[in-house]
Each structure stands twice: as C-alpha cells, then as structure tokens.
Amino acid sequence: MSESRKITLATSWLDGCSGCHMSFLDIDERLIELADKVEFVYSPLVDYKQMPESIDVGILEGAVSSEDDLDKALKFRKHCKFLISLGDCAVTGNVPAMRNFFPLDAVFDRAFKENVQLQPQRPTVNVPKLLVPVRPIHSVVKVDLFIPGCPPSANTIWQILSELVAGRMPNPAQFTRFGA
Amino acid sequence: MIVPATPPKVRVVTLKIDDKDLSAREDETILEVARQNRIAIPSLCFLEGLSIWGACRLCVVEMKGSSRLLSACSTRVTEGMEVQTNTERLRHYRRVILELLFAERNHVCSVCVSNGNCELQSLAQSCGLDHVRVPYRTSVYEVDPTHDLFRLDHNRCILCTRCVRVCDEIEGAHTWDVMGRGIGCRVVTDLKRPWGESASCTGCGKCVQVCPTGALVSQGTSAGEMRKDRRFLPYLSQMRGVR
After folding, report:
1. A177 touches chain B (CB under 8 A)
2. Where would a tag sit more exposed on chain A, N or C end, judged by fewer CB atoms within 10 A?
C-alpha cells in the first residue's frame, strides 16, 4: 500500500537538447532517495508507454516548436495536477526560439539544403509540422512553477523537488536564474 | 582638485524610508540615502558618478501623500518625507519593467557573452522574474563589429545610456548618442557611422565596462566570457570633477 501513497511524476522533452533531463540524472545517488517518495509513471527515462489518467507532478523540458510539442504540452496539462517548466527553453524559448528571427523557409534551407551535399530534401514523412513562432510552454498552457537555467543544476532540481515532496512551495530564484 | 574655500551650506533633513528614521543632506537623492543605509532599491540606468537619467524606472518608490510613483535616483529627499521601497505594487511594476525589457530585444542569456555577468540577468533573479508573460518581439537589430577592440550588439541593448554619459562626462569624447524613437531607438557612434570609423572615439573602453548587459563587449569574447572591469567605478565622481 505504501507504493500508492508515493507522489507520481511524469516528465517529457519538447524542443530542447535533453540537457535538463541529463541534469536531473546528475542528482546521482539522491535518485535513490527520491525513488522512495516519488514514482516515475511516464518519462523518457523510464519505459512506460501509456500516460496515466492523473499525475501529481509533470515536468516539461524544451520549447513548443512543433505540433507534437504542442500535443505533449496539452496532454501534460490535462493529466498533471502540477506542471513545471524546467529549463530556459521551456521557460523562455531560449535557443530553439532563436529561429523566430528568421522565416521558416530560411531555417529549412539552412538545415536541409545549404549544408547537405547528397540529395538535399525537406523531411515530410513522420515528422511533426513546425510551428511559427517557437513559444515557451506557459504561452500555450498554464504552468505552475518555473525553473530557469540552461540547464538548471542538479542541485537546483534536487532542492526544488525536495521542497515539493515535503509539501512546500519552492522559490527557484534562490537556486537558479536565466542562463544559469 | 579644486577645493571650495568654504564648504557649501547644506541643510540636514529627516525622513523615513521603509519605516526607518533617517537623516540626510538635503542635496541627496532617495536612492543615495537608501543605499547608504543598506536599503536595497534595484536600479539599472543609474550609475554613481554619472549624471542622472531616470529612464529605466526600476528604482520607483512610493511616497506618502502622493499617488504618483517617484524614481528614487532622481528625487531629492525632503523634510518629513515617508518613502516605501518594496511594496507589492512596486514589486509588480519592477517585474513588468523587466519583462518588457526581456521581451523587446534578444536577451537569450544562455548564449550571451555576458551570461553570468549581467545586471539585467541578476535583476531578473532578484526581482523574482521567472518567466515573461508577454510575447517576445523577436525583431533583428544589427551588430556593429567594426571597432578593433570592442563590439556593439543592439540586440542586447536596453538603452540605459550609461555609455553615452560616461563617454561625454568622464572621457569627454562624446562619441555616443541616442537616435530614433520607440522600438527604433538605439545608441549610435559619431552620428550613426560605424564605430570602427569613429574619429571621436578614443578607444578607452569605459562605455564597454559600464554597460550593464552584453550590448557593449570586448572583441573575441564568446558565450559567458565577457567580464566587465569595474575597478574604476568608485572613482567616477572624482574623474568627473567637483559637482
């Protein structure tokens, strides 16, 4: 029965470099301590394929750049009672949003034509449609907590999760800032 | 240095800042008095030793008996004044000011040369700005890399005019000016000629060191590498001469 009282946690990455998830893993042996109180129910770090109906805490990394990102953000908002934007891409758009300074065609050409020698072509099959502009997560769904940083340090993530697990509302500005 | 034969007579006034009873010279500003008494008021365009600009509005304070907010850097203390520096309303306005600054041009901290050494970045942290609620403007401003030693990136500029003032008032060169209005507003060298072709610039670099962000930086710096040399700042008032 003690299992059922664990806080359920889901994470996902949208348009980012997965560095925030790497930073999460960097909390090292404290992961074991965390696993006593938290159950990972859906995440790139674990193997569950289906998202449960109701999750206590959702963590999203990365900006909203494509229709797939948008779907993930909406899905997380629907299923998670408490949603966290983790890292500068999620919070500000950061590097993925720097394509907003160029027309989408120019971005495609740079990635799939100008620097390609063999059969330059745009991918069209099995790839989600890109959105313009790239946006931070809170501009598409309501976010409950913002953790800036590129990436937020392992200590930052640990401190903030510890506070949440203890039932307190953390203040990320104590530990991190934009670009940290 | 010219020392006046008789020190000018200045009166002392008493006032309250954040319910603390304080005394100050009547020619001092609210910001000066607050900082002498370790009351932190955030500011951005203000730099001790330079003339007062009063543009960023981050240092706004509330004064009893006035519904208008006052900028602490440009308001002299008066007898009996009662000032509040950190109310809910002020925190709200400061946050909005910072949000608009972040939204106006390109302030992506993670790839900025001044990452970790930026006053805008640390103010966002200290004022609790953890996300920007307005849409980012994402319009492109030019970069002027023509100077041998320094680089100007308008995308990072917040128009505090510290560069304009330090160049005019301390170096005496007056290379910098401000042109345009609204979102087209920018700092320019020699009436908008490339900085590298400037006849008036002495290459002293004071503008670079006083710039609060990554708008003015040394050539050859990459993300997070720009450290401003602020060692001369305590002497700005003396460099400017007796006021």
Report:
1. yes
2. N
Quote ipTM for the complex.
Answer: 0.91
* pLDDT one-digit tens code per residue, A121-175: 998 899 999 999 999 999 999 999 999 999 999 999 999 999 999 999 999 999 9
If residue A74 lies in a helix (H) or strand (E), which one and from where to where? helix A67-79
The reply to whether A77 falls in a domain is yes
The residues, ordered by sequence, that sit 6+ positions from A21 with a Cβ below 8 Å of its Cβ are: A11, A13, A44, A45, A61
B positions 125-184 inside 8 Å of A (CB): 125-126, 128, 130-133, 135-136, 138-140
Identify the architecture of domain B91-240 in CATH: 2-Layer Sandwich (3.30)
A23 in B contact zone (CB under 8 Å): no
For B123, name the nearest residue in chain A, comparing CA atoms only: A177
A60 touches chain B (CB under 8 A): no
- Read off the pLDDT of residues B2-28 as tens digits, 9 standing for 90 and up: 666 776 788 999 999 999 999 999 999
CATH of the domain at A158: 3.40.50.700
Give the integer Cα–Cα distance in Å for A60 and A21.
Answer: 9
A138 lies within 8 A of chain B by CB? yes
Given an 8 Å threshold on Cβ–Cβ distance, is B135 in contact with A150? no
A87 lies in some domain: yes
Determine, yes or no, domain membership for A165: yes
Give the closest of B110, B125, B139 to A95, CB-based: B110
B-chain residues near A133 (CB < 8 A): 136, 138
| pLDDT over 90 (residue B103) | yes
DSSP string for residues in B42-68: --SS--TTSPP---S-TTEEEETT-SS
- Identify the CATH assignment for B12-85 out of 3.10.350.10, 3.40.50.300, 3.40.640.10, 3.10.20.740: 3.10.20.740
Range(s) of the domain holding residue A12: 2-101+131-174
